Amino acid sequence: MFPVSAYAFPAAIFILFKAIAKTEHAALARILTIFAGFLTFFYINTEIRHFFVGGDIRLSPMSNPEFYTYSLVWLIIASGLMFVGIWRDSQLLSQSALLLLLAAVGKVFVFDMSALDGLLRAISFLGLGACLIGIGFLYQRYGKNESTAE
Q1: Residue 148: burial class (beta carbons within 10 Å; 0-12, 13-18, 19+)
Q2: Whether pLDDT at 84 is above 90
Q3: Which one of 27, 67, 102, 147 has the fewest CB atoms closer than 10 angstroms to its CB?
């Protein structure tokens, strides 16, 4: 059994090291932030897997609710990253949000909507559209300032 906290603990360590290295080594702080972001993303995805299948999170077929939950959580995380990136004026967070948003939209269009029919496909498409419009509005309204690299 793989402990799901195996990604969360190193991510916290990277954030701690980033705080220490930020003043003197900006490039190292940026790299540590990127690694912490990847580890946090993996941690969240393993938590989703753990929620749906229990303690044994090995690769096995996914149920439809689990498969759609990944898309929903990725959109929520991308929205949160965009909000925090605009709030903290961080180009790194805003770019990370856009990258995750691109991955989520790609997954929804290529995989999720191909498995849906009729009303569920329309609701999924409208929900994704509303989320994209909201993120676009947020970024256009508040994210126009010259962002500084973190």
Answers
A1: exposed
A2: no
A3: 27
Contact 93, 84 (CB under 8 A): yes
Mapped onto helix, strand or coil, the DSSP state of residue 148 is: strand
Nearest in space to 98 (alpha carbons), one of 70, 125, 69, 138: 138
Query: Residue 102: CA atoms inside 13 Å, Cβ hemisphere, count?
Result: 6
Name which of 33, 107, 79 is nearest 87 in CA terms. 79
Distance of alpha carbon 111 from alpha carbon 83, whole angstroms: 27
Tokens of 66: 């689990």
Looking at residue 73, its pLDDT comes to 93
Distance from C-alpha of 2 to C-alpha of 51, rounded to nearest angstrom: 14
Q: How does the average pLDDT of the chain come out, rounded?
A: 80
For residue 1, what pLDDT is reported? 46
Kindly report the number of other CB atoms within 10 A of residue 10's CB atom.
16
The answer on pLDDT for 55 being more than 50 is yes
Predicted local distance difference test score (pLDDT) of residue 146: 52
Beta bridge partners of 84: none
39 within 8 A of 7, measured Cβ to Cβ:
yes
